Automatic annotation (TrEMBL):
This is DNA-binding MarR family transcriptional regulator. SUPFAM superfamilies: Winged helix' DNA-binding domain. InterPro entries: HTH_MarR-typ, MarR/SlyA-like, WH-like_DNA-bd_sf, WH_DNA-bd_sf. Keywords: DNA-binding. PANTHER family: MARR FAMILY REGULATORY PROTEIN, TRANSCRIPTIONAL REGULATOR, MARR FAMILY. Residues 1-153 form the HTH marR-type domain. The keyword DNA-binding applies. The keyword Membrane does not apply. GO terms for molecular function: DNA binding; DNA-binding transcription factor activity.
Length: 175
């Protein structure tokens, strides 16, 4: 295939709106994360620490099975264990054995973890408003949330594991 022919084939694909959609999504995500991460760092939290604490705080009983926490955060079981180890050392999380199944462990946010979250959340919400949601009309935000849920439910079906009824989602690493 000649260079000219290869170039014309490549150009044909370069204008594909799917590339534009994926590129815009990536650019927006990395841009927003770059703007909101400094306030998390100032509070002594990494992005994954914050996500872990937030997911625990928003879950029934402020706790999740370790397997569900791994599924929700998209971490491996060893990855979530390392995060919980670190948060436990800082007294932000404790592990609690399940009353009904001694093999299962729950990660539970502590009062100190809730206090750290309460300290960082006002600034985090201001950052989200300034760099993300506040840039959209209410209708745009509703449409975006609906579209993101559709995508999330396909690409990360375990993202809400254990959040609704305290039980793991089918096929989401349940113990």
């Amino acid at each position: 295939m000649s260079t000219i022919m290869m170039y014309s084939v490549a150009v044909q694909w370069l204008d594909d709106p799917r590339l534009t959609a994926a590129g815009l999504f990536t650019e927006a995500y990395t841009g927003v994360i770059a703007r909101i991460t400094p306030s998390l760092s100032e509070a002594g939290l990494s992005a994954v620490d914050f996500e872990t604490l937030l997911r625990l705080a928003r879950s029934p009983g402020h706790r999740l099975r370790m397997s569900d926490l791994a599924a929700q955060t998209n971490l491996s079981t060893s990855g979530v264990t390392r995060v919980v180890d670190r948060l436990e050392r800082d007294n932000l999380v404790v592990r609690v054995t399940c009353e009904n199944d001694r093999r299962a462990l729950y990660a539970t946010i502590t009062e100190e973890g809730m206090a750290r979250l309460n300290k960082v959340l006002p600034q985090h919400l201001e950052d989200i408003e300034r760099w993300f949601t506040g840039l959209l009309t209410p209708q745009q935000l509703d449409a975006l949330l609906e579209a993101l849920r559709v995508i999330r439910d396909v690409v990360r079906p375990c993202a809400t594991a254990g959040a609704e009824r305290g039980e793991p989602e089918k096929g989401c690493g349940a113990a």
